[in-house]
Structures are given as structure tokens and as C-alpha cells.
């Protein structure tokens, strides 16, 4: 009778809940058993989880851009020895360099076949003596991943009757999703429909300036007029101008620590 196969223990660090859920689902479908031992949405959460998880995970799935910074910061804070598979929507961070030193990368949205190939590569390396993370490689990646290299949208073109109008980002208070329509709210209280989802806008806007408060709101820092403690360890944000129908805009309990870190930059 064959012995049961020990599952591969994986930890997922990903600040997009849908992406994390999808990755976990893909891992469950692998022929090789994979157990997700935890998920984190920020550098701070990942550091806490990695310190607390014993024994250490067999593999770390690591998004590059997190809500509170670049995930590379983890290598400065911790002695990470497990193999790392980076997941990212951007392919400009010297990603081909990740093909060495027991490191791989996957571009989002993650292709199931590429995920399987990465796990097969990991299995082969576990059988041999996998090399450790190369500090020189990390320095190279960090140098190329400076925020200044990233270009964000500076304006949005909206339709006003038969006319087109360009709204500078500096005039935007927040974006709100309402019944599958995304509305741009200006500081003056005007609203315009834009052809982007909030998920798309997160990748187009400077994360130092804008924060995804919840599924329906993406706000500029200066639009957050007040923050109040709410039930179940959540936070209520008071936006200016006020949302339609004085909608209550909450920050979920899971995002509170990341939100505080974002405010305290």
C-alpha cells in the first residue's frame, strides 16, 4: 500500500482577495497535494504570519506590490529560506532573473499550466540542494522596482453631454462602484461615469495617494475627512464630498491594519 503523499505547505501573500482566492483554488486542483497554511495582504501581515507559522511553509507565493509597500521588504526583515514564487501583474521587474536561485514568477492572471510548471520546478529543486536567495539579485530587482519608474494616470477623460472633459487626478476625491457602474467624484461634488472597474483603477492610480477602502470605494487620501471606530473592529470613513444618500463607507476588519499603515506613511 503506497504511503500518503505529504501536502506541500504554501503561504500566499496577495493584497487582492479575489486573486488570492483564485490562486488557492488553482492550488487545490493540482495533482500534487498543496495545503494553503495562511494568507496575508500586506508586508506587515506577511511578516507576522511567517514568524508565527511553524514549521515554515514549503513555498511562498509572493505578490510584488502590496498595500503597504514592496514585498521585497520581507527579505530585509526576515531570513527567508523557503523557495519563493512571485506573482505580479507587471513584467518589468527583471522577472527573468527570478528563474534562478530556487525562485520563479507568475504573471497575473495566473495561468494554470504555468502554475503547474512552477510547482514541478519546485519539486525537482526540493529533491536536490536548492540554492539560497541571491542577495545581489534582490538588490538588482529593488533598484529596478523603485516607485519612480512607475507611471500612473494623471487625468481621466469623461463625457459631458456631447462633449469630452479631462479631469486631472488632483481634482478627484474618490471613485465609487454602483450597480456595475463606476462613478468618478470630484472634490467639487460633481460625478462622472468612467469606463473602468475599481480593480482596474487600483493599477492605474498611485497607491500612495489612493486606497481601496472596500469593494465599492477607492478614495484619495485628502477626501478622507474623518475616521471613526465602528463595530466588529471596523473603521468608518467620512468622505468629503459626502457619498450619495450619505452611504456609510467602512474599512473591513481585515484591511484596518493595512489602512493605518497607509495613512501613517
TrEMBL record:
Q: Which Gene3D superfamilies does the record match to this protein?
A: 3.40.50.2300, LytTr DNA-binding domain
The keyword rRNA-binding is annotated on this UniProt entry = no
Its Gene Ontology cellular component terms are: cytosol; protein-DNA complex
Which PROSITE patterns does the record associate with it? HTH_LYTTR (PS50930), RESPONSE_REGULATORY (PS50110)
Looking at the record's lineage, which domain of life comes first? Bacteria
What the entry lists under InterPro entries is as follows: CheY-like_superfamily, LytTR_DNA-bd_dom, Sig_transdc_resp-reg_receiver, WalR-like
GO MF annotation terms: phosphorelay response regulator activity; transcription cis-regulatory region binding
Keywords from the named record: DNA-binding, Phosphoprotein
Using the record's annotation, list all stretches that form the HTH LytTR-type domain.
156-265
Response regulatory domain spans which residues? 9-123
Q: Which Pfam families match?
A: LytTR, Response_reg
Q: Which GO terms of type biological process are on file?
A: regulation of DNA-templated transcription
4-aspartylphosphate: residues carrying this PTM: 63
The protein's matches in SUPFAM superfamilies, at most eight in alphabetical order, are given as: CheY-like (SSF52172)
Protein name, entry field: DNA-binding response regulator
Q: Which organism is it from?
A: Hymenobacter amundsenii
